[in-house]
């Protein structure tokens, strides 16, 4: 189908390395497109030679390209998965809906403001509808005006939640964790799955196939922290789904995103560049001071993504802090193998500031307002004469009108 002189078609995923292959052109487009319009920093993605790498771990995925005179000028990726639906209530068995995620939208700078971005999203929505998807979602930083204008004003998405993306550089010294007070243990996959299903399944957009995420080779494990005086009974008589409701605990899982794609800093404030360079020089001159150094973010780097973060009980924010430090120390030890230079965590914007304060991060690299947007595909389905069993618009209203719950589940496959 042709729009304004450009054609939208499926990405051709074959091994042709030629200069005009889809693969070569999409990789080149990614290199030229910064993410967002942030005044603080620009990040570029490096797909390690595989443009489709970010969505390959999703149950269903698709990539489309926009082509103008045989040149690839735009790209978009989408994935589909089943999620538990009822907001704020434990999900009755079987109440599951399909959600499509819009990811990796890029338009080459000379072709912007010509309708390419909007056409790519609309064609991806058609693919969602043909696969019986009920809702589609996207996320963008608050200051990415181009993207938010496109989705909210032009394509009628609704902002429904705000996340805070916290980024912590992997330093050259470990954090201290008070091991006399806090116990951290690695969980078996089945225990982690049972705990997530019991405590997080009523979280919005919680994936039905949580076990597949936990079992994925990119998932490095799940850890739980308790205060030593109390514990969460993993295998007590009340089974793994039981739990001492009085005790404080926290849980996180870790995903090795750097195995799939790398990031690179394109621009950083001058003061930051000077600060990091002077630290390096001082460390060379005065190694005895053991200065805390930050990695060189101008070279492509990998990162670990903390997902499934949940905490309950008094002072449990401190347990989250201990887990984040533990994960940092692990990344520091593995950084040679994984080129892991940062830990990324996303928490709900409605979590109180205590949690944010406990999670070590650098403000300059972090984004405190990541807008999550959603759209019902009901009208598109009806236009296509596909029957529709749910009252989606009511649910959208329920989602947007109810106060947001504290916890977000961020699926690492959509990062
Ligand atoms: C965001 C992006 C994909 C938009 O692509 P595009 O092809 O220029 O978008 P369109 O031409 O289809 O724009 C449709 C509408 O979106 C809005 N829009 C797009 N770019 C805008 C901008 N720079 N400022 C304000 N509004 C903008 C406008 O409402 C526009 O309609 P109009 O041109 O009639 O005013 C493109 O700017 C881009 O690749 N940015 C860098 C990567 C990125 O941030 N991707 C999004 C990740 S979530």
Automatic annotation (TrEMBL):
<dbReference type="GO" id="GO:0009734">
    <property type="term" value="P:auxin-activated signaling pathway"/>
</dbReference>
<dbReference type="InterPro" id="IPR016181">
    <property type="entry name" value="Acyl_CoA_acyltransferase"/>
</dbReference>
<dbReference type="InterPro" id="IPR052810">
    <property type="entry name" value="Plant_NAT"/>
</dbReference>
<dbReference type="GO" id="GO:0016747">
    <property type="term" value="F:acyltransferase activity, transferring groups other than amino-acyl groups"/>
</dbReference>
<dbReference type="InterPro" id="IPR000182">
    <property type="entry name" value="GNAT_dom"/>
</dbReference>
<protein>
    <recommendedName>
        <fullName>N-acetyltransferase domain-containing protein</fullName>
    </recommendedName>
</protein>
<feature type="domain" description="N-acetyltransferase">
    <location>
        <begin position="6"/>
        <end position="188"/>
    </location>
</feature>
<dbReference type="Pfam" id="PF00583">
    <property type="entry name" value="Acetyltransf_1"/>
</dbReference>
């Amino acid at each position: 189908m042709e729009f304004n002189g450009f054609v939208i078609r499926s990405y051709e995923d074959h091994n042709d390395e030629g200069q005009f292959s889809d693969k070569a052109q999409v990789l080149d487009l990614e290199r030229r497109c910064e993410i967002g319009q942030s005044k603080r920093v620009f990040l570029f993605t490096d797909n390690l030679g595989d443009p489709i790498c970010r969505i390959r771990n999703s149950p269903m995925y698709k990539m489309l390209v926009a082509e103008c005179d045989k040149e690839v000028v735009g790209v978009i990726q989408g994935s589909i998965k089943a999620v538990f639906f009822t907001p704020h209530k434990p999900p009755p068995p079987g109440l599951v809906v399909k959600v499509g995620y819009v990811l990796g939208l890029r338009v080459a700078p000379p072709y912007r403001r010509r309708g390419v971005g909007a056409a790519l999203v609309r064609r991806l929505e058609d693919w969602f509808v043909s696969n019986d998807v009920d809702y589609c979602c996207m996320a963008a930083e608050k200051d990415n005006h181009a993207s938010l204008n496109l989705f909210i004003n032009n394509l009628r998405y609704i902002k429904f939640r705000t996340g805070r993306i916290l980024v912590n550089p992997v330093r050259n010294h470990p954090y201290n964790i008070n091991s006399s007070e806090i116990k951290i243990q690695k969980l078996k996959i089945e225990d982690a799955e049972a705990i997530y299903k019991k405590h997080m399944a009523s979280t919005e957009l919680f994936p039905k196939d949580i076990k597949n995420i936990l079992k994925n080779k990119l998932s490095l494990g799940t850890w739980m922290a308790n205060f030593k005086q109390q514990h969460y009974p993993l295998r007590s008589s009340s089974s793994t789904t039981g739990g001492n409701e009085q005790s404080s605990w926290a849980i996180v899982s870790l995903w090795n995103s750097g195995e799939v794609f790398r990031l690179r800093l394109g621009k950083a404030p001058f003061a930051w560049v000077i600060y990091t360079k002077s630290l390096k020089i001082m460390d060379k001159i005065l190694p005895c001071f053991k200065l805390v150094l930050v990695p060189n973010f101008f070279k492509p780097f990998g990162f670990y993504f903390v997902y499934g973060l949940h905490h309950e009980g008094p002072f449990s924010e401190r347990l989250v802090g201990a887990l984040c430090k533990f994960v940092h120390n692990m990344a520091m030890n593995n950084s040679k193998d994984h080129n892991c230079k940062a830990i990324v965590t996303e928490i709900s914007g409605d979590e109180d500031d205590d949690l944010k304060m406990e999670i070590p991060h650098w403000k300059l690299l972090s984004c405190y307002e990541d807008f999550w947007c959603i759209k019902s595909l009901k009208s598109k389905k009806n236009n296509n004469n596909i029957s529709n069993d749910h009252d989606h618009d009511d649910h959208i209203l329920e989602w947007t009108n109810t106060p947001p719950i504290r916890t977000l589940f961020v699926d690492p496959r959509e990062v």
